[in-house]
Every structure is written in structure tokens, then in C-alpha cells.
Amino acid sequence: MKTIRKILLGAGLVILSQTGLSAESGFTLETVDPEADRLALQNYYQQRFPGVPLEDYVNGIYAIDPESRKQWDALMEFPPYEFDLEEGEELFNTPFANGKGYADCFDNGGIGIRQKYPYWNREEGTVKTLEQEINECRVNNGEAPLPWKKGDIAKISAYMAFTSRGQPFEIDIPNDDPRALQAYLDGKKFFYAKRGQLNLSCANCHLQGSRVLIRADLPGPMLGHPTHFPVVRSKWGEIGTLHRRYEGCHRDSRSVPLPPQSEAFRKLEYFQTYMSNGLVVNGPGARK
Amino acid sequence: MGIMKVKAKARGGNTDVKMMAKHVMETGQRKDKSGNTIPALFLSEIEVKHGDKVVFIANLGPAVSKNPYFSFSFAGGASGDTLELSWKENTGKSGTETAEIR
Amino acid sequence: MSMNRRTLIKAVAAGGALMSLGVLVPRLALAAWVKEAFEAKEQSAAIKALYGGDAPAESADVVLDAPDIAENGAVVPVTVSTSLANVESMSIFIESNPSPLAAQFIIPEGTKADVSTRVRMGKTTNVTAVVKADGKLYSATKEVKVTIGGCGG
Q: DSSP states of A149-210 as a string?
């Protein structure tokens, strides 16, 4: 029987540093070591949920909670995102008014590239997300940008993710551009910083709080988090993007959400996705 | 364009059918932003035929989830056969679609 | 009432008399949608409207597969199956829903008495599967907990 366990605030961090495989990784540009962070996170989850294979973390909470898994398996008998995938493919292949299309904006015609996003864009000096480039593609071709959180952009993103299914994420932090490491570090700080009326950090719920009842919800593990987005969420009854979820998470913890695709959210996605390097693209997903 | 997505597989003398209908299944219980009740709009009947034989009927209320899903299995059916799916809304609107057994 | 209506529609379908006139479109006429049952506010009334006669008997031969705690009340996976012979129909009732009858499945001969679907539940309540086999009613009931999650965003 599940009991409500108290979240030991900060406990995760302590465990992290205890189980870090090699180098310590810190919160300054001098001390941060993304690869050490990534390995420490994997190690943390392997110790916390022994027997759960790393590759299963692309399934979020369903990797570590058998009860939830059973219902999810029933949903996946006919995944609720199938209509969205179909529409996403159609949208992706529908030419703009100028005759060009999404395929013209991306490497490899936009197929099988999801595992490279988000990435550090040296020219612009910023983190670029897939959704961001979908809209830039539209604007550059004379089309209006799509709203960020749901609808067409999520469907197009879902289709593009689907064409990358099974490809391991390969997020790069180029070491010849210190701004990239800074972006990662900012994302990491964001993840661990407490905010809002409830004084919660992302880590409180999704690291220490993984599969710990918060009222009636079991938060999913941080490892693998961005791998299955966009998702059809039963709560939403429709498909939505990762940044829509970020916004919701902020509201849940009673803090004022930043706008989707804001710099802070893009850096957070950069950090989170780097931490999932090696896990495969599994989007779109179905979640509660 | 149809509203039905069907996965029908012939296996060992039976056909396993999984189907999902794209439908909002509005309950009639919800209110819009100005406080007016959103009228019920749901699939009320679905019938699946294999040849002339009816193999499945679902009579539905609005408590069936959005994008209704059903799985069932019937004796017979072969790869390449056609299933005929008819549906009706509570509004009276109806349609018929076909799907192939794989 | 409801039985009369069903009988009427069956007769119409069989004869095809009104079909040609376009008065009814009895494409789906094998078992009509029973308005009184789907609109009943009480489960017992819904069962009566759908089947008439006696209340169903609890039976271990009716298998109702539903979660103990629903991940989300909007999408609760439910499977009804039975080893009983000559199954005519299987239906799902959700006691505390505004209208308890969620779905009725007609099982023609040759179709397995094993159907899965997904239903909405407003709150924690009993889910009941009713199977009509050989003219008799059997049931299985399970409480499914629906919680309001902490992560509503």
C-alpha cells in the first residue's frame, strides 16, 4: 500500500553528490560538469529504483510505477495521439502559400532530426527548440506563427518526433563556446531553484518527488522527461507541447509561469534534454 | 474524411478489432466561459459489419471518453476483407465508413 | 416502454417497410439506443429501462477489469468479459455519474464476449458490468477511485 511520504527537500541533491560517479559538478561555470551531472542522475535513479532499465525512463512515471503502467498499457493499445500524428503529418506536408514547406527549413527535410533538439545556436547565441524553428520556418515563408502550446504546432512537432523514434538524444554543448555551457548551467539552476508560493523547485517534485504521492499525483522522474513530448495528456484531453507543461507545472506550484519559448524555458529544456542524452526519442506520448 | 481509425487483424480464425472514433463526446454537463451549458454532442451508436453480418454494436452515452475506443474480436474474417462501420450521433447525424482487415 | 420501442424498431428493420419511405434510417436498427436507459439518473432505473424485469445477479463469471485508482477520471480503461454462453449484450454502468449507463455492447453470435473501452467517471464510485446471457442478467461490480490530482496544469 502506498503511503504519503514526506518529500525530503534537498535529499535528492545530497544523494546525487554521494553517488556521483566521478567528478563533482557544481553550480558555477568553473565547477559545472554536464557529463558528470548526467551520469550522476542515471546512477541516482538506478539506486532509487533498482531493476528499472535506464532505457525505460523514456516512459516517464510508467517506468517506475507498475499500477500506473497497467492503465497506460491499456491506453497504448490504441494510443490517443494517433489522430494528432496523422494530422501532424498532413500539416507537415502541406505547402505554404509560397509553395515551400517545412521540409525546406530543416536538415534532412525535417525527418529524423528530433534527437538533436534543442541545440545551441552559435550565430544567434541562444538555445533553439524544435517548436521555435517550426514557427521560424513559417514566418520566413510568409505564414503567421502558430500558438506555442497546443494545436497545430504540437501536432507537427509530434510527427517530427515520431520520425525520430528510437534515435538516441544527442544534445551537444559545444566546448568552444562558453555561452553554451552557461545556457546549460542556467537551465540547471532553474531546475533546482525554488519558486512560487509553495516554494517548490522542479527537482522537489521530479527528482526527490519521483513516484512520491503529491496529493493524488505521482510525479514522473526527471530522467527521460523531455523524451516523450509532445504529449496527449488525459488532463488536457488533447495534445500539448513541453512548454505548455512547464507553464502548468508553474501554476501547480503557485508561481507565475514564464511564457512558452521564453529564454529560461528553452534553457531548462536544454538542460533537461542533455540529461536524457542516450535515451531515445519516444514522442509523442500519452500521459495522465 | 472519416472519423474512424481501425486496426483489424485476422489471426487464427478470428479478427481482432481495435477502433477509435475521432469525436469530442461532449457531455452536456460543461459550461462555456459565459456560463452557458455546452449542449451534449456524442456518438450514440456504432455498428460494425463484416460482409452482411453484424459483428459488433455499441450503444453509447456521453460518459464514454473523448475519441471513443473499443476493442473486440469476432470469428471469421480474412486479410483483405472489408469491415463496414456505421455511426450515429445523438443529433441524428450519421456516417458509414469502411476499413480493411489486415 | 423501452421494450416496446425496441420491438417496434426491430419490426421496422425486419420489414423494411418504413425504410423505403425514409421515415427511419434503420441502418443501426439491430438494437436501438434506449433513450430512457441512457438518460436515467439512477442506476437501478437505467438497468430496468435497458433490460426490464429483474435485477442482475452478481456472478463470478462476469469479469470487470478496471483500475483500483484511475489515473484520470476522464479516461478510465474498462474491459468486460465473461465465460458465460449465449451472451447477448454487455453494458457498463457508473453509479454516481449524472447518467449511470455509459455503454451497451451487443454481442452477436460469433463475437467474443470480451470488450474494452474507456469511460469518464466524475468521482469515486462503483462501476458495474451487466451481462445478458441466455436471457438472464449477471453482473460484477468494482469500486474505482477517482482523485483530484495535485498537478492540474
A: SBTHHHHHHHHHHHTTTTPBP-----TT-HHHHHHHHHHHHHHH--BTTTTB-HHIIIIITT
Residue A77: list chain B partners with CB under 8 A: 18, 69, 71
pLDDT single digits (tens) A185-243: 999 999 999 999 999 999 999 999 999 988 888 999 999 999 999 999 999 999 999 99
Calculate how close chain C gets to A162, using CA atoms only, in Å. Answer: 23
Chain C residues whose beta carbon lies within 8 Å of the beta carbon of residue B68: 117-118
Residue by residue, DSSP assigns A35-84 as: HHHHHHHHHHHHHHSTT--GGGGGGTHHHH-HHHHHHHHHHHTS-TTHHH
A82: nearest CB among B5, B66, B71: B5
The mean pLDDT of A160-177, rounded to a whole number, is 97
Q: Could you say which of A105, A137, A202, A249 is catalytic?
A: A249
Q: Classify the phi-psi angles of B36: left when phi > 0, otherwise alpha if psi is within -120 to 50, otherwise beta.
A: beta
Q: Is A104 left (phi over 0), alpha (psi -120 to 50) or beta?
A: alpha
Q: Per-residue DSSP letters for A216-252?
A: TB-PPPSTTGGGG-SEEETTTTEEE-HHHHHHHHHHH
Yes or no, beta carbons of C27 and B94 under 8 Å apart: yes
Of A94, A136, A129, the C-alpha closest to A229 is A129
- Are C139 and C56 in contact by the 8 Å Cβ rule? The answer is yes
Cβ–Cβ under 8 Å, residues A63 and A57 = yes
Span A94-113, average pLDDT = 98
| Residue partners of C22: CB distance under 8 A and separation at least 6 | none
* B5, B18, B71 ranked by CB distance to A83: nearest: B5
What would you report as the CA-atom Rg of chain C, rounded to the nearest whole angstrom? 17
Q: What is the pLDDT of residues B32-44, one digit of tens each?
A: 999 999 999 999 9
Would you call B55 and C103 a contact, using CB atoms and an 8 Å cutoff?
Answer: no
- The cell 541516482 sits on which residue? A44
Q: Look at A83 and B7 and tell me if their CB atoms are within 8 Å.
A: no
Query: How many CB atoms lie under 10 A from the CB of residue A287?
Result: 25
Closest-CA residue to A27 (of A170, A191, A172, A173): A191
Q: Write out the H or E segment, with its range, that includes residue C142.
A: strand C136-146
pLDDT for residue B2: 87
Could you please report the per-residue DSSP string of chain B?
Answer: --SEEEEEEEETTEEEEEEEE----B-S--B-TTSPBPPPB-EEEEEEEETTEEEEEEEE-TTBPSS-EEEEEEE---TT-EEEEEEEETTS-EEEEEEEB-
Q: Tell me the ipTM for this assembly.
A: 0.96
CA distances (Å), C3 to each of A101, B36, C91, in order? 58, 35, 16
Strand partners, C144: C125
> Is some CB atom of chain A closer than 8 A to the CB atom of C67?
yes
Per the DSSP assignment, residues forming a β-bridge with C63 are: C81
pTM above threshold 0.95 = no
